[in-house]
Design goal:
With about 130 residues, the chain is α+β, with helices and mostly antiparallel strands. It has helices spanning about 80-90, 110-120, and strands at about 5-10, 15-20, 35-40, 45-50, 55-65, 95, 100-105, 125. The chain has one domain (about 5-125): VC0802-like (2-Layer Sandwich). Strands 1, 2, 3, 4, 5, 6, 7 and 8 form an 8-stranded mixed sheet that branches.
Length: about 130
């Protein structure tokens, strides 16, 4: 696999959690970037920190790395190549995937360190 290009998305993001039967608030669907995941155990959302959602547990101040895609489904090891160096540096992540690419979230206070670690691992990292 050739070196992956990563872009740090602007803004700060929030991971929210509610009971699985909770309705997705309409204002979530109007955001330019969001993620909704429902399981039998929970409803999880990724939304801008600025979006206040009542009745949701919040974990704020996340930053997002976008892997420039699209990535071929036949590629293997994309996430592990990114998460391995971060894990060695004790930087925890929250991962998201779409049809075209992957996204890694790190806490805001770890962003600068994560950029250094990923660059040292051979990734091209730019900030938007």
């Amino acid at each position: 696999m050739s070196a992956l290009n990563l872009v740090v998305l602007p803004d700060r993001w929030c991971v929210c959690r509610a009971a699985p039967e909770t309705a997705v608030p309409a204002e979530v669907l109007n955001q330019p970037f969001f993620c909704v995941m429902r399981t039998h155990e929970e409803l999880s959302l990724v939304v801008p920190d600025s979006l206040v959602l009542n009745n949701f547990e919040r974990e704020e101040d996340w930053r997002i790395f976008q892997v420039k895609g699209p990535l071929d489904f036949a590629l293997t090891g994309v996430l592990s190549s990114l998460t391995g160096p971060l894990a060695k540096a004790s930087i925890s992540i929250f991962a998201l995937s779409t049809f075209d690419t992957d996204y890694l979230m790190v806490k805001g206070e770890k962003l600068a360190e994560a950029i250094v670690v990923l660059r040292q691992a051979g990734f091209l990292v730019s900030e938007s």
